[in-house]
Amino acid sequence: MAKQNIDRGKILQEAVTRSGLSVKIVANRAGYQRITYYSHIIKPDLSFEILEKYGRALNQDFKNEIPEMKEYFNERLPNQLDDSQTLEYWKQKYYDLLEKYNALLERSK
């Protein structure tokens, strides 16, 4: 079975068009300038890193349209926590530090 060539730039362009958002807004949310977006959409082999940023900006997962992205994420993020775990981690860290700070304030009185 021959490997299918997927034009990642075109997939990005179609996703932005479907979103109904302006190119400028999407590019800014992804951390790029509008002109950079146009250079991205002409690249058939656009990097997964760049697609990931646009995916976050569009709230879209490109893994269904580009199956290789699943492998990319599995290799790149095997032990990374999901968003809810990350949020819980930082919330707990904040509370721990707040308690320590309050204890120091009490001792200094």
Describe the SSE topology.
Layout: H1 8-19, H2 23-30, H3 34-41, H4 48-58, H5 68-76, H6 83-108
Explain this structure to me?
This protein folds into 2 domains: 1-78, lambda repressor-like DNA-binding domains (434 Repressor (Amino-terminal Domain)), CATH 1.10.260.40; 80-109. It has helices spanning 8-19, 23-30, 34-41, 48-58, 68-76, 83-108. The relative contact order is 0.11. The protein is built from 6 helices and no strands. Helix 2 (23-30) packs across helix 4 (48-58). The mean pLDDT is 85. With 109 residues, the protein is an all-alpha fold. It is elongated, with a radius of gyration of 20 Å.
Instruction: Please write the CATH class name of the largest domain.
Output: Mainly Alpha
Task: Show unreliable segments.
Answer: none
CATH architecture of the largest domain: Orthogonal Bundle
The number of helical elements comes to 6
Q: How many structural units, i.e. domains? A: 2
End-to-end Cα distance, whole Å, is 75 Å
Average pLDDT number: 85
- Bulk shape: elongated
Rounded to an integer in angstroms, the radius of gyration calculated over CA atoms is: 20 Å
Major sheet: none
Please state roughly what percent of the residues sit in beta strands, choosing from under 5%, 5-15%, 15-25%, 25-35%, 35-45% or over 45%. Answer: under 5%
Task: Give the structure's gist in a few sentences.
The protein contains 6 helices and no strands. By secondary structure, it is mostly helical. It folds into 2 domains: 1-78, 434 Repressor (Amino-terminal Domain) (Orthogonal Bundle); 80-109.
